[in-house]
């Protein structure tokens, strides 16, 4: 990866930083259990919002990134796709990405936990990453990203 462009502290948006990604699911208890049992996520906070149940979930060793579950009836569910290439033809949310030290080890553990894996791992030299994809039971895709040896930031 190339060096990042210079930061812009004079921007009126200079306080922007990543916090969470929201994932809409039909079943709160099942989704919370899946993220906790399959990915070892931790529950930070739970609260109601109208007819929905919401929660912030944190990865096992990261307090700065959250998945926000937004759960309740879903009158317009997304199509569940089995192919990364086909998924790239759809507009809107495509996936969230989590960094891992070893894509193959993480993928093997996901497989042992019965997680739906999508395709095979692959490398993109332009971004110095090894990648693999899987999905939750509601079709939300998640990318595993490993920095290739010798890669910069």
Automatic annotation (TrEMBL):
Transmembrane segments: none annotated. InterPro entries: Glyas_Bleomycin-R_OHBP_Dase, Glyas_Fos-R_dOase_dom, MMCE/EMCE_epimerase, VOC_core. SUPFAM superfamilies: Glyoxalase/Bleomycin resistance protein/Dihydroxybiphenyl dioxygenase. Keywords: Metal-binding. Residues 17-147 form the VOC domain. The keyword Cell cycle does not apply. It comes from the Bacteria. The keyword Transferase does not apply. This is VOC family protein. It comes from Streptomyces siderophoricus.
């Amino acid at each position: 990866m190339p060096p990042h462009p210079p930061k812009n502290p004079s921007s009126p948006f200079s306080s922007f930083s990543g916090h969470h990604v929201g994932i809409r699911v039909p079943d709160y208890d099942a989704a919370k259990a899946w993220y906790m049992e399959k990915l070892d996520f931790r529950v930070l906070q739970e609260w109601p919002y109208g007819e929905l149940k919401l929660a912030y979930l944190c990865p096992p060793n990261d307090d700065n990134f959250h998945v926000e579950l937004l759960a309740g009836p879903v009158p317009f569910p997304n199509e569940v796709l089995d192919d990364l290439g086909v998924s790239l033809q759809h507009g809107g949310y495509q996936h969230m990405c989590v960094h891992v030290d070893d894509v193959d080890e993480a993928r093997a553990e996901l497989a042992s936990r019965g997680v739906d894996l999508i395709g095979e791992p692959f490398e993109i030299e332009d971004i110095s990453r090894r990648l693999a994809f899987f999905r939750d039971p509601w079709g939300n895709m998640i990318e595993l990203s490993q920095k290739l040896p010798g890669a910069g930031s």
